[in-house]
Amino acid sequence: RAAASAAADAAAALCGAAAICPHGGGIAGLLRAEEQHAHASCGCLRHCSMDTALFGHDLLQAAAASLRARALLGRHPGAVPNPAGADLLHYTGPEENVSRSIGLRSIDPEHFSILDEASGKVLEEVESKKAFFQVYDGAVYLHQGRSYLCKRLDLSARVAVVRAADVKYYTRIRDYTDVHITGGRVAYPTAPAALVVESAAGGRTQSAADGGTESPAAASTRAAAACIDLRETPESAAAAAAAVAAGASPCDVTAPRPPPATTSAVCETAVVTVRFMGFHRVWRGSGQVFDAVDLHLPDFMFETQAAYLRVPRAARLECQSLQLEYRAGLHAAGHALLNTLPLFLICNPKDVGTECDNPYATRFRIDRLLLYDKQHAGGVGLSAQATPHFFSLMERALELVTGCTCTSPGGCPMCVQHVDCNNYNAVLCKRGAEVVLRHAMEAERRAAAAASAVAKSQHHHSFAA
User: Fold this and answer.
1) How many Å apart are CA 279 and CA 293, to the nearest integer?
2) pLDDT tens-digit profile of 79-136?
3) Do the Cβ atoms of 159 and 186 come closer than 8 Å?
4) Are 342 and 393 in contact (CB under 8 A)?
5) Angle formed by the axes of helices 216-226 and 430-464, nearest 10°
6) How far is CA 17 from the centre of its chain?
7) In whole angstroms, what is the distance from residue 326 CA to residue 202 CA?
8) Are 317 and 244 in contact (CB under 8 A)?
């Protein structure tokens, strides 16, 4: 067997349970090319018979070919020819123990060293993406139960100098995370029900929904828009507002779910920017903030993958009519999705993030539910795997929110609070999350019904022709 097959040993240690996840793919779907190559390089010194089952034939062959081109794998000169015709490979790189030069637990190649001022010893090395959350000028750094005060942070040398200190407070960073979608999809497609087809003379051609006939070109345009647009028309928005005013919900949560293939959720590349504004000093005993300090640190940016779905305008209208904070509802709905994500993918709370609001945010926020890979640059594929299950995620999230018996307006850790919230679970509205999720699910059902009707119409016309 190819010696690169032993990569499954290391992979199973990190992601073993992923191979039996009922919704997600195997381990191969969670590993990027760099990770596959690192696993293969380290695993080539061992033996395993589960390579194809965990990685798949194509991915394993691609990793082996790349490593051979980099002179890290090669054919063993004394190997007995394989009857199947496959090359028997072994490690041929310069390192005697390849695992010392390749970190499988830490993918980030850049680190900050934390140096003890008194002894001159390095206490720890921290990944660059986590450094500014732990060490900065004035930060209280904890190491093996002891408190240290960060005296100096050298960005060019990537060294933080700390000194042992017995303080009665801890520090908490103030940061803001922005997720910018950079994919090539149309940001604001044409609404299908409000589609207006202009004639050559500048007049309006009556659509089929208005009782008239439309051209094949207009029908095809409307069909394309129906599959991707979730915006409300003025008529539907007015109907939703009237239903809310009458005390009825415009969303029918008992309606049939759309098939996963028709979900309007998409997965695109995104750029995440973390801006560090300052930090708070907080008393240990009471948790009270007694000081705020500004910081001047560079932004941390990385590219990743993000899955998102637009929320219809009717959700905002219902929140306004019920005097609920709409932004807090979006924030809480995103947390509910994160809390239900482990039902579909094997991940921990820090693997995937969402857009979190802080109490002082005034900038425009897009009406969407978004999940993004937050651990490693480039993403690890969790958002991509969650995309076809977005409706089921919302369904479970709505069950979680409505079934929780807590009475707090901001929810609890069992429903809309999340352990890894960037803003410490501020600006949350449990009832608003229920409104947002219901309307998003109803919009998905309408989009699925429109796509199904168009498909049936096209099939009927082709059969008649």
Assistant:
1) 5
2) 666 655 556 677 777 777 766 666 655 666 788 999 999 999 999 999 888 899 999 9
3) no
4) no
5) 150
6) 20
7) 39
8) yes
The torsion angles phi and psi of 394, rounded to 5 degrees, stand at -65, -35
**Among 362, 394, 387, CA closest to 372:** 387
Spatial separation of the C-alpha atoms in residues 407 and 414, rounded to whole Å: 12
> CA-CA-CA-CA torsion for 177, 183, 185, 186, nearest 10 degrees?
50
Contact 23, 341 (CB under 8 A): no
Tokens of 381: 């594929």
How far is the C-alpha of 369 from the C-alpha of 315, rounded, in Å? 12
**Cα 186 from Cα 200, distance rounded (Å):** 25
Q: Are strands 159-164 and 146-154 parallel, antiparallel or unpaired?
A: antiparallel
Q: Residue with structure tokens 């496959």?
A: 86
Q: Which two tokens stand for residue 415?
A: 């429903």
E strand spans, 165-265: 169-181, 197-198, 204-205
pLDDT of res. 19: 32
DSSP assignment of 394-441: HHHHHHHHHH-----TT--TTTT--TT-TTTT-S--HHHHHHHHHHHH
Alpha helix locations (H) across 227-381? 234-245, 313-321, 326-340
| Spatial contact of 353 and 222, defined as CB atoms under 8 Å apart | no
Spatial distance between the Cα atoms of 222 and 220, rounded to a whole number of angstroms: 5
Between CA 387 and CA 44 the distance in angstroms is 34
* Paired residues of 149 in beta bridges: 140, 163
Query: How many Cα atoms occupy the beta-carbon half-sphere of 444 within 13 Å?
Result: 34
Length of the chain equals 465
Extract the tokens encoding 278.
């300052």
d(C-alpha 272, C-alpha 374), whole Å:
8
> pLDDT (tens digit, 9 = 90+) per residue, 133-153?
999 999 999 999 899 999 999
- For 20, other C-beta atoms within 10 Å of its C-beta total 9
* Kind and range of the H or E run holding 460: helix 430-464
The encoded tokens of residue 223 equal 């069909």
